[in-house]
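User: tokens in, sequence out, please.
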């Protein structure tokens, strides 16, 4: 697991939150600040954090069937609660990074949702969420305790669309490396072994750890973890 390679930290920053898979599966830090450029992701967690009870009420009375999904494919929602529910269903969003998704079918989607909403709330009630470009996130973070701060980045992988509205460019990647180096914090970056990424890692004197291979219909890629710290040996190393 990637999180076993993380250093001890009191402050946790994550500029590309997504489904929160890393955040929900690591030990929670004392202070947490996370960000995602996708307004639907941001809205979902803001609703869970600030209006959980009404979200649950709306979900409990909402009919779950193909007509509703068809309607949501053709119409957007303005109300934050309905917008959050629409996003959950249309995106098959991995809820709480669990690998379980809210969907129609033989599963009981309401049971899955209600089981996880309380656990999610307990994890995020004191987390600061932002909705901005990662460059802005580093400004807003106002890092003043680099020694106790850890940054984890899982950006859109270079050379893939990765289901994001806009692809990550080489300039984006270079900017991210520069911001991480300037932060003076310990950090880890998940990526594929793209030549440009490896070049940036080498140029900045960073460590590259092979995590494993991912294969899809088009190709096979090696996933790597780039860090600016030496991994400390553990009982299971």
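Assistant: Sequence out:
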């Amino acid at each position: 697991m990637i999180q076993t390679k993380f250093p001890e930290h009191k402050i946790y920053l994550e500029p590309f939150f997504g489904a929160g898979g890393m955040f929900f599966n690591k030990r929670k830090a004392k202070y947490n600040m996370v960000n995602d450029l996708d307004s639907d992701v941001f809205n979902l967690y803001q609703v869970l954090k600030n209006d959980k009870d009404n979200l649950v009420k709306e979900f409990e009375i909402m009919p779950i069937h193909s007509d509703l999904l068809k309607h949501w494919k053709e119409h957007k929602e303005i109300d934050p609660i309905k917008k959050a529910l629409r996003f959950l269903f249309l995106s098959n969003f991995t809820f709480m990074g669990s690998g379980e998704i809210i969907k129609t079918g033989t599963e009981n989607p309401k049971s899955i949702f209600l089981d996880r909403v309380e656990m999610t709330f307990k994890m995020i009630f004191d987390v600061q969420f932002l909705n901005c470009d990662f460059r802005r996130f580093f400004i807003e973070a106002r890092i003043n305790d680099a020694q106790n701060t850890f940054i984890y980045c899982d950006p859109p992988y270079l050379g893939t669309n990765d289901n994001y509205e806009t692809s990550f460019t080489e300039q984006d990647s270079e900017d991210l490396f520069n911001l991480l180096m300037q932060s003076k914090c310990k950090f880890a970056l998940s990526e594929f072994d793209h030549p440009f990424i490896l070049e940036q890692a080498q140029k900045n004197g960073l460590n590259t750890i092979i995590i494993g291979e991912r294969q899809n219909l088009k190709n096979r890629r090696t996933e790597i973890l780039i860090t600016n710290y030496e991994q400390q040996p553990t009982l299971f190393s």
